Amino acid sequence: MVSGDLKQYVFEKFVGEVIYKSILPSIRLGGLEVSKAFIPIDLVLPGEIEISKALLELAIRSQRERFTWRLKVNGVPVTREFKPNSIAETKNYLFSKLVYDITPIMQAKKRRRHRCSIVVKYEGSEYLTIEHVGLLLYIPSEDAKSHISLLSGALALEPGEVYRSILKHPTGLNTIGQLRVALFSPSTQAEINIRFNGKFETSISSIVGGEEAILEISDVNEINTIEIDHVDTGATYYPKELLISSLYLQQSIYREPKLSIKEIIMPEKLESSDKIRLVISNEGESVPDKSMLTIIHLGTTIYREDLPNLEPGEETIVEPEIKLPKGEHPIVIRLIWKKLSRTTFTDKKIILNIS
């Protein structure tokens, strides 16, 4: 019989981008001395972007259901007592899940760098392991739409057991969905099959420990069925339980900027320290949050300039100074722009003849 459960914490349409950060640290704490875990989560976001909601999930493997620890996020105390939302029991350990709303912490004005630093301090003699950390962030924007759903909890499946569940998901976005499954395989001999709405999606084998399966799903409905099968192959391994921490499904559409070099104008006779003229346009559907021009020569950046954030259809002229010795030089003109959490670049290769 499958032990534990997954609860649906998220079923939502959101105007903006939703970012799901999932890491599998497998950090062990406990023993004779006080132990501490520091888990930083990098958030590559423009400083002016606001976060409207943030959820944190922690999956823990331990010997006991209740113990004392200290959990802090960005230096702010969250809890001193371990009170799981879901528990999966096995013969030798407990697999537990905790879910917290950390929106006020992530919205604090002094946290403008948009970092998420998790600190766990544990004083128990029995060992525990932080297996999975998930962070869900909501970033409002008129240039994106996201439909998301999250099942989070703790499951333990022995060989031959199958977990079946309903996943409710908002409809209305005609786009591919991305399904992310955080799991822990007990052995390289274990085999795990995943089905979505009756369709076989993937088989996972030859791994041990934490793994995040990322699947592209084309058939997404309002009511979806998910099956995870811990196949009984006849192989003997210990421990034998497959652990499941979360199932996350997301569909998103974006209005993105697209910068391009429309024209390159050079003097008839180009000398060192002369300037070339670049006409740069935004052929996309939105304004970038940040954009930059770089010129690269043989792997070295010889010019860098921040660009204005162009409206769709808008152009700008840049006149970079080229400081190269006489001769023929291959260079790469690179445009880099950022929109929400996405960074994109495009390259234009040319040859400069310096006389």
How far is the first residue's CA from the last residue's CA?
A: 79 Å
Average pLDDT: 93
Biggest sheet character: 9 strands, antiparallel
Tally the beta strands.
26
Order of helices and strands: EEEEEEEEHEEEEEEEEEEEEEEEEEE
Number of helices: 1
Number of domains: 2
Portion in helices: under 10%
| Estimated radius of gyration | 25 Å
Coarse structural class:
mainly beta
Runs in which pLDDT lies below 50 for 5 or more consecutive residues are none
**What portion of the residues fall into strands of 2 or more residues?**
over 45%
What is the molecular shape? elongated
Short précis:
The chain is an all-beta fold. It is built from one helix and 26 strands.
3D structure, described in words:
The strands form 6 sheets. Strands 1, 2, 4, 7, 8, 10, 12, 15 and 17 form a 9-stranded antiparallel sheet that branches. The model has no long low-confidence stretch (mean pLDDT 93). The protein has one helix at 103-107, and strands spanning 3-23, 27-29, 35-41, 53-62, 68-73, 76-81, 86-89, 94-101, 116-122, 128-157, 162-168, 177-185, 191-196, 199-205, 209-217, 223-231, 242-254, 259-265, 274-275, 277-282, 290-297, 300-306, 315-318, 321-322, 327-339, 342-354. It is built from 1 helix and 26 strands. It is elongated. It has 355 residues and is an all-beta fold. The protein has 2 domains: 3-254, no CATH class; 259-354, Immunoglobulins (Immunoglobulin-like), CATH 2.60.40.10. The N and C termini lie far apart (79 Å).
